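Hey, can you fold this one?
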Amino acid sequence: MIVLFILIGGIFLISSNDLVYMFLSIELQSYGQYIFSILHRNYEIFTTEVVHYFSDPCLLAAMVPIKIYSNAEAEKDKILSDNKNKSGIYMWKNLINKKQYIDYSENLIIRFRQYFNINHLIRYNCMHICRALLKHEYSNFSLTILEYCEREKLLIREKHYWNIFNPEYNISQDPTAPMSGRNHSEESKTKISDSLTGEKNPMFGKNHSDKTKQIMSDAKKGENHPMYGKNHSDDTKKIMSDAKKGEKNPMYNKQRASGAGRPSNEIEVTDIKNNITTSYDSIREAAKALNINHTRIVIYLKKKKIKRSLIKVSILLKSYNS
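Sure. Predicted structure:
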């Protein structure tokens, strides 16, 4: 009989989708344990379980909600009057399809006033719960206050209830990471981009001070740099390269603005071994022809103290390909 109580309670608990059923199933399991304790005269276990059950507010709140408003439309005034100056966890439940939404608020009355504002629902119709309230109306929703708690514990307690109810109307998969399991749509990306373009950009018409620039620079130096002690893999290098090729290149089919960038230096390279001189339009072009990195030519210029601003530079090279 004791085992039967525990098994039935466990089955109800797994299949329950309602707070009342969940409470009854836990009661059945607890009842079996109480009987077992009494039969074996283990009053210590019995007393401990009873005290733990009725004295732990978090455990009690997980099973017995603080308040249930079965009809959100009919009980609107009561919802607002009961929750002044309170913070806590609440749950909307669609009485038609049984879907639920769980969230927290540091000021419940302000949050509930927003929900009862049709313009707010229309403005935030990207949220499932807002669309559902507009579609099914308040009379087909119940509102449950799962728990009143301190502001510092709101996020932790919300996650606790998510794990219990697995609410369908919540878009993200983790309350501590709102974008978990989600991606912005192309429309959302465009809106985000437009909201930060031109005069809407917080840095529009402004420049970072030298102090700010130094702070930003120091924040990426040495061990603070995300690539410190790391190297890009060959696959990553190829992806980065392909991302800038052809039409993907931001300068594809565009002409550099007049005076933009550093002007190219026409360069003459003389191989003193064969006494052959070749002209190139730029240092990079010369480096490519010689199969070397262009920085080697730049270093050579610095050592010889040759100014790169000169229109034509002659370099005597013994051999870069040997």
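The longest strand covers residues 141-148. Let me know if you want another pass with a different chain boundary.
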